[in-house]
TrEMBL record:
Residues 464-503 are annotated as: Disordered. The lineage of its organism: Bacteria, Pseudomonadati, Pseudomonadota, Gammaproteobacteria, Lysobacterales. The keyword Cytoplasm does not apply. This is Putative efflux protein, MATE family. Pfam families: MatE (PF01554). One of its GO terms (cellular component) is plasma membrane. It comes from Solilutibacter tolerans. The chain crosses the membrane at residues 20-42, 62-84, 96-118, 138-158, 170-191, 197-221, 242-270, 290-309, 329-351, 371-389, 396-413, 425-445. The keyword Cell membrane applies. It is found in: Cell inner membrane.
Length: 503
């Protein structure tokens, strides 16, 4: 078959090289997104002031929560598509895409309609500083309007990555980022015929850029007749398949809860920081801009490991699954560690980009950065290991580990030690919780029963028999480990899932 979709077969080839080549477009995309956020923060922070920067820091936590709310369903769809591609079952891949697309679009519209009137109440609940509240509300209302575009763009990108195609999402992400960067000053300051929108202009730039890029990607996929493009005669796949929908929810909700647990913890953390005033809130917002760069390699390698593991699970190449996890952890330490040192050494220069000249918040930002930035070494290991584990369908243990790390360690650490350490208790809670999460994730990977989990119960009436199944001559014999036997409904990994539920 021709390969107009830039897909890679992740079940073949050397593990390290295949993983790195597959991850590079994801990493480049993360760089673009972070660069976009940083450029926007520079415009807002340096030209609209600290109040505006604190406003965007609060509103962006809500945006992260909104994306996290459906992240799990997107991940479940990605894994199901990856497993179907590994098994050479294109019919099943399109069923997953159709059901997932209907779900994503419906949910995004509901969230947008609910969020518009509730924006101010949400920000007030977060204890957003009073002087920043009107600015944050103006920004957040437009972000809610952008949710359908953000959701569908993220969904299409995730599906393409699950199929082994990271180049196409990167190309259209680059388009969105370039448009956003160009439109930000035009809409903030009202240059030419465009209205002066202030901080709302930054959010409007995000909406317009993602909308244009989404439409362009859909048209491109249709024009190129991408292997996963759903033609008119296949429109029936948009009617939700109940078995797939149940798998998306049963497996996706716990994965989505992980993002919600993270985002709620972030909201709790910034609420604690807000109590110390605008200087600390803007310092934290500036440090967050740097941290997005530090976590990029881990997120790219982790996402690549998840897609790669999913295809190899579908192909029953368990040796390659383990090798993927080991290689991902090594890459995380090498790439993340290589970023931390220069960011520490040059943090005065980099942090000052996001704060007004002579800002009192700069010293606070440097101090908290020195304490907390090291936690991303541990975060990366957790991200990689959890991505591999989830590729089989084991979604509950990573959620429990994350919940314990954030709400059993980070939040109590930050709250209970403030009387003794002051605001430093908040900063030290990051490395403390990240280290514990890493240790728990590695323990589950070694001793847990994640290899026995499955994503979707197979209907024997609908098993697709591919015309050709490559023998993968380049794969070592050791990679062809037999598939582990199915576990019962009483498995420790899925004790709450009934036996008839999709696994």
């Amino acid at each position: 078959m021709a390969n107009p979709g830039n897909q890679q077969d992740l079940t073949q080839g050397p593990i390290a090289r295949t993983l790195l080549v597959f991850a590079l477009p994801i990493l480049a995309g993360n760089v673009l997104q972070s660069l976009n956020g940083s450029v926007n923060a520079i415009w807002v922070g340096r030209f609209l002031g600290e109040k505006a920067l604190a406003a965007t820091a609060n509103a962006n936590n809500i945006m992260f929560f909104l994306i996290g709310a459906v992240f799990g369903v997107g991940m479940a769809a990605t894994i199901l598509v990856g497993q179907a591609m590994g098994a050479k079952d294109m019919v099943q891949a399109k069923r997953v895409i159709g059901t997932s697309a209907t779900f994503f679009f419906g949910v995004s519209v509901v969230i947008a309609l609910l969020g518009l009137p509730l924006s101010r109440h949400i920000l007030a609940w977060m204890a957003t500083p009073a002087e920043s509240l009107p600015l944050a509300e103006a920004y957040l209302r437009i972000i809610f309007m952008a949710v359908p575009f953000l959701y569908m763009f993220a969904f299409l990108s995730a599906i393409l990555r699950g199929s082994g195609d990271t180049r196409t999402p990167f190309i259209f992400l680059m388009l969105a980022v370039l448009l956003d960067i160009v439109l930000n000053p035009l809409l903030i300051f009202g240059l030419g015929p465009l209205p002066e929108m202030g901080i709302a202009g930054s959010a409007m730039a995000t909406l317009v850029a993602n909308g244009i890029s989404l439409v362009a990607m859909i048209l491109w996929l249709r024009h190129r007749r991408h292997p996963l493009w759903i033609s008119r005669r296949e429109n029936h796949v948009y009617m939700p398949d109940l078995a797939i929908l149940r798998a998306l929810i049963v497996k996706g909700v716990p994965m989505g809860l992980q993002m919600i647990v993270i985002s709620l913890a972030m909201i709790m953390m910034i609420s604690m920081v807000n109590a110390y005033g605008v200087d600390y809130a803007s310092a934290y917002g500036a440090a967050l801009q740097l941290w997005t760069y530090v976590q990029m390699p881990a997120m790219a390698i982790g996402a690549a490991c998840s897609s790669m593991a999913a295809q190899n699970v579908g192909a029953k190449l368990w040796g390659r699954v383990d090798a993927t996890a080991r290689t991902g952890v090594v890459f995380n330490f090498l790439l993340t560690g290589a970023l931390i040192a220069p960011i520490i050494l040059a943090d005065r220069l980099t942090l000052s980009l996001f704060l007004p000249e002579g800002s009192a918040a700069l010293a606070n930002a440097r101090h908290l950065n020195h304490i907390a930035v090291w936690s991303f070494l541990f975060f990366g290991v957790t991200f990689v290991v959890s991505g591999v584990v989830r590729a089989t369908g084991a979604v509950i243990p990573p959620l429990l580990i994350l919940g314990v790390a954030l709400w059993g360690i980070r939040i109590p650490f930050a709250k209970l030690l403030q009387p003794a350490l002051g605001v430093d208790a908040i900063w030290w809670s990051f490395p403390a919780s990240a280290l514990c999460a890493m240790l728990m994730s590695l323990a589950y990977y070694k001793w847990g029963r994640w290899r026995q989990a499955t994503m979707l119960a197979q209907d024997p009436r609908e098993v697709a028999v591919p015309a050709e199944v490559p023998s993968h001559p380049s794969s070592p014999v050791a990679d062809r480990t037999p598939e582990p036997p199915s576990v019962s409904a009483n498995s420790a990994d899925h004790s709450s899932v009934p036996a008839s539920s999709p696994r």
